[in-house]
Queue: 4 jobs
Job 1
Amino acid sequence: VEVVESGGGLVQPGGSLRLSCTASGVTFTDYVISWYRQAPGKEREYVASIFSAGRITKYADSVRGRFTISRDNAAKTVYLQMISLKPEDTAVYYCYAQDKIRGWPDYWGQGTQVTVSS
């Protein structure tokens, strides 16, 4: 099983980025996919989730209205569209796949760095 994030980079405040998460080796529709992030010196925090059919999404208050999570089950990919980025959004962003029924098995990706700075 492999969970891989991509799309991170350096962006100016107010800018946009789209992160991607692909999962191989699993039945993709069996998994709830979430994004978490971890800033330097801070604990990992929840960002957003999307359930298997893609109709149910959840967001942390800090990103609601600026981030949009979506999924393409045929491509086995989840996206995190981020707009109006702020310096406090700077973090390593991780993708997390969790079995939708039992909560396990679960898998983490290696993370992708997002830096918001002028």
Job 2
Amino acid sequence: QVQLQESGGGSVQAGGSLRLSCAVSGVTITSAHMAWFRQAPGKEREGVARVNADGVSPIISTGVRDRFTISRDSAENTLYLQMTNLKPEDTAMYYCALKTTWAGGVWSGFDYWGQGTQVTVSS
């Protein structure tokens, strides 16, 4: 059974940093395509960062490209999202997601989701 558990969210002031973690069980992350999404109140969910199973050429959303980094630790079977220079507009629930096939587009087709971790950035 595949399970994803996010952690690392919290409240920070603008300009601060956070690192989100997504611990994965039931599948090896190097055999899966994984991504971070976020959803702010009243807004649609959006893809933030993605890394494919081969770990090559991660995709970062244009709006956060200079501030967010996606990485993974295969030994820990954990996905990370390093967020720097946070802005109030980054406030959202952040989710990690996983799929084991190439089905769907860059930000679709994910079969497994975590419960989310809240990030709140104050000005």
Job 3
Amino acid sequence: QGQPVESWGGLVQAGGSLRPSCAAPRWLYETYLIGWFRRPTGEAPEWVAWINDAGTSSAADCVKGRFTISRDNAKNTVYLTVDNLEPEDTGMYYCAAGPRSYGASYERAADYLYWGRGTQVTVTS
């Protein structure tokens, strides 16, 4: 298996929380940066957060304070804890792995090589 695999999206009411996960092959998890993107229905994908193998992370301004990215090295898994969800957070959530590259911001889809199939997050009002 060469791609990350997302799981644990779901249906939740506004104000609720979810913790989608991204399991990656060990060789990918240990050397690549892992990022999360989301794509609201009918809209373009947008970057949400990334975390590297050293544990350094970054999140988009629109989700700071509500979304937290973390990693579990024993499970080769990256988590996206999403709190205080809003209906506008509804969409397909994807994780992706990108190689270290000088000058890459890792806020663009083009900075990533391996993509999962996504997990759906739906927030009702």
Job 4
Amino acid sequence: EAQLWEFGGGSVQAGGSMRLSCQVRDFGSSFACVAWFRQYPGKEREGVAVIESGGATRYAESVKGRFTISSDNAKKILYLQMDSLKTEDTAKYFCAAATGCSGLGLRGLRAWGRGTQVSVSS
């Protein structure tokens, strides 16, 4: 069974930066898509950024130019560098791995981390 662990998160002031990491282990099928999602209280998870096995990346409009997704494929670690953070970025962030991407969503077999809270204060 696939296992994902997020690291990082916490509190930061608006305008600051934070980096999230996600270790991916034991994904039995090869995964072609890794992604970050976030979830506001009472809302559904929304895609923030994805990176496909070929290196193509996509971002939500709200984070373009501020967030950068990257991966270390050898170590199976996914990163999300978040700069110029805004109070509206406050949410619980989840990493995910899947056998495919569809826009900012996932296709096929997928696994999720448990999430890490990011809080941005004004």
